[in-house]
Amino acid sequence: ATAQQIEFLRESIKTIPDYPKPGILFRDVTSMLEDPKAYALSIELLVERYRNTGVTKVVGTEARGFLFGAPVALALGVGFVPVRKPGKLPRATLSESYELEYGTDTLEIHQDAIQPGDNVLVIDDLLATGGTIEATVKLIRRLGGVVTDAAFIIDLPELGGEARLTAQGINCYSLVD
Ligand code: PRP
Ligand code: ADE
Asked: Of 13, 14, 18, 27, which is best to mutate to test ligand 2, by the most ligand atoms within 8 angstroms of its C-beta?
């Protein structure tokens, strides 16, 4: 990615102060989605990075992770697996609880969606504390999947997510800090 491309992506993300709570600076990736050039570029840059790396599945987390994970999976020619909030997946699931920057939640994955030895790339829109992706990585590993990489559109470095995921053996990549 060139510095110019990254700057273009950065400028497409609006910032909303005090949403959803006082003191939170909300980085709104939906403004990037509204610009087809920015949305396409974000997908192209991720596809370029992970093409020919042996990825066999892409996992994306509800809800905004779906918007980036699914197009990357299609472009890489591999399956997409959703990790969802509780009670949304119809087949047998595994669950993990996690903490957010603003709250706590549980995530689920279909037990039969990952095969032992799958090389799984995890994609989400934004890395904050890393709780969402730490829980997601645990789910994938419980099913025998191999996870070494997680990719994001936005990293909020002051929240320490990258260090938390590095401690779990995950290399983090983000387009915009
Ligand atoms: C947001 C964001 C990431 C997560 C990052 O999702 O899309 O998934 O929080 O936070 P973390 O690194 O501290 O875990 P949210 O749970 O708000 O769900 P949504 O995408 O369904 O709005
Ligand atoms: N998810 C967690 N923290 C966030 C933030 N500051 N902006 C957007 N999404 C978030």
From this structure: 27
